[in-house]
Amino acid sequence: MPSRWGCRLRIWFRPRSRSAPGLRRSGTQRESDGIGMPTPLNPLKKALREPLLQFLGMGAGLFVLFGLINGPAEGPPNRIVVTNGQVERMVAGFTRTWMRPPNSREIDDLIDAYLRDEVYYREAIALGLDKGDALVRRRMRQKLEFILEDVSALLDPSEEELAAFLRANVQPFRVQPQVSFRQVYLSQDERPDVRADAAELLIRLRAGENPDDLGDQIMVAEAFELASRSEIERHFGEAFAREVSELPTGVWSGPLLSGLGAHLVLISEREDGRLPELAEIREEVKRDWLLERGKELKESTFRKLLEDYDVVIDQPARSPRSNEQLAATPPKAAQ
Q1: Is the pTM of this model over 0.70?
Q2: Helical pair 282-306 and 51-70, crossing angle rounded to 10 deg
Q3: What residue ranges define each of the domains in the chain, with the CATH number in brackets?
């Protein structure tokens, strides 16, 4: 049964005069950045290398794409047009949520909900309810920043750029030293003299006795294969991980103390820490490069846009003495 709304819907409501508040901008047109060009032969090539211009070009492309997806604006501001694309997105959202497509009545309900949102939104804007609302302002900022993030994700770094980024940010990509070890656990709660017991068991282990027959039960694994220091710290604590990194290989050592108790440890293998080649971690480096470029693009875009505004910050004047008194006054505790 077809939806009562059909695929396209036009709803007319009483026109209302609306005044659009203006933004106070600087009276002069933005001047050139004053960046000199060494030769008149390649200004376009140089401009295309500017990150902000790249962003603006990609941003314009995204806005065109959004326009194609959402469809062109139709008619006066008091007309609501629900396009096929909007209905399809409603249906897709319903399907993701409920794991099935909606029936005709549910499609009608989705359109009803959209119309309710749209009508109340327009009426609220007409009444100026968005003015002075910190939540609305923050949400609008977030939407613009999301667009900037989408645009920055379209950047395609060269191998040279990724290699330079890796050289400048070594630590996040460095592989930690890894160690394989076996441990025999001794519970401090069950043993009155855990150090004496550990010394006795250490002699038996070095004599070749089976470690499976010795020690107490523990909830963590008895053997670890190529575990990083951070992984060892999660299980046994920082002091234990530090001591393990200093133990000799191939011989039972200990006891090492942790928050769990005492441990006798046999190191069987070590791998030194290293910085992988770019080819091994290219996707991880590219991800972090894009995040960094996204932050830079958002900041540079904000600074460029800010040049169009006159900013007046009205602050009460303070004497030097009052400033000193203010700095010396401890902050009050939160009530």
Answers
A1: no
A2: 90
A3: 1-14+47-131 (no CATH), 175-271 (3.10.50.40)
